[in-house]
Design brief:
298 residues, alpha/beta, Rossmann fold, Helicase, Ruva Protein, domain 3, 2 domains, 7-stranded mixed sheet, two-stranded antiparallel sheet, 13 helices, binds S-adenosylmethionine
Length: 298
């Protein structure tokens, strides 16, 4: 694989970032979640968490003006960066011209066939990780796509809003625990890498951020016969957070089978008065099987 070429001054400093922005007359689009990282220490932590080497690949979502991309190019064998904003493409080609192992793709990641991208860009890599400072307005859809597409990923190391990182890592019985926690923890083991103050970005966002590492499990956390049914039960359980399971799950069983539903729940050792936020993944898996057996998921 090609080794990265020489590098200029690091992009991730306030001065260099401002210089690039001025040179290209770039104006930030808030609607695209454009907050560029200008803190080298945070980049060090992101790159270290991704555990890259020259046999591995990195997929970056939203490279901006290339602050993280250039660091990935120095560590990984191959880097593919998918950027939606066409104004950034010539800037990226300019600032990353020295790195032969980087390809920039102009696309919306949510509309990209990632399996095809894998075949075209990462053939021969021993492992591939997603490493990104995500646009906050689409964090959850991007994470869900990465998880559900069944890609051969080693890990996902991403900067997200701090509150979203807390939801991903939340344990049952806490206020942050919900459908995102369950989806993430079903596929991955989450680990908080660091909290990032808003001053690490230009322009500074209104919220604190955090870097989280999601290490892909070799197999899901719990075994389920049908994943779609499992997630249907999870979503129905959280449809109205204040409602008990005995009430929320009537959306699946039908109101006329409420008494039978209570029996199914009790049969799994789950009191119908409990709320979705108290159930572990194991309990959701057992409940899905039992509801299926009772014909409540047809
Ligand atoms: N990686 C850069 C950094 O750390 O400085 C920029 C991160 S900025 C938070 C998010 C980037 O994602 C922006 O460059 C934005 O244009 C891009 N973006 C937003 N929505 C996108 C999408 N759907 N697909 C690909 N890129 C997207």
């Amino acid at each position: 694989m090609t080794k990265p070429g020489v590098s200029g001054a690091d992009i991730a400093t306030p001065n260099r970032t401002k210089e690039i922005i001025r040179k290209h007359n770039f104006t930030f689009k808030k609607s695209l979640g454009q907050n560029f990282l200008v803190d080298k220490n945070i980049l060090d932590k992101i790159v270290a968490a991704a555990n890259l080497d020259e046999t591995k690949g990195a997929l970056e979502i939203g490279p901006g003006i290339g602050a993280l991309t250039e660091r990935l190019a120095r560590e990984a064998g191959r880097v593919t960066a998918v950027e939606i904003d066409n104004r950034l493409i010539p800037i990226l080609h300019d600032v990353l011209a020295d790195y032969g192992n980087v390809s920039v793709v102009h696309a919306d990641v949510l509309k990209t066939d990632l399996h095809r991208l894998w075949e075209e860009r990462f053939a021969g890599c021993t492992d591939v990780s997603v490493v990104a400072n995500l646009p906050y307005y689409v964090t959850t859809p991007i994470i869900m796509k990465l998880l559900e597409d069944g890609l051969p990923l080693e890990s996902i190391v991403v900067m997200v809003q701090k509150e979203v990182a807390e939801r991903m890592a939340a344990k049952p019985g806490t206020k942050d625990y919900g459908t995102l926690s369950i989806a993430v923890q079903y596929y991955c083991e989450p680990e908080l890498v660091c909290v990032v103050p808003s001053g690490a970005f230009i322009p500074a966002p209104n919220v604190d951020s955090a870097v989280i590492r999601l290490k892909r499990r070799s197999r899901p956390a719990v075994e389920v016969a049908d994943e779609a049914s499992f997630f249907r039960v999870v979503h129905a359980s959280f449809a109205q957070r204040r409602k008990t399971l005995g009430n929320n799950l009537t959306a699946l069983s039908g109101k006329d089978r409420k008494a039978e539903l209570a029996e199914v729940l009790s049969g799994c050792g789950i009191q119908p008065e409990r709320r979705g936020e108290t159930l572990s993944l194991r309990e959701f898996a057992d409940l899905t099987e039992a509801l299926g057996r009772a014909g409540m998921l047809d």
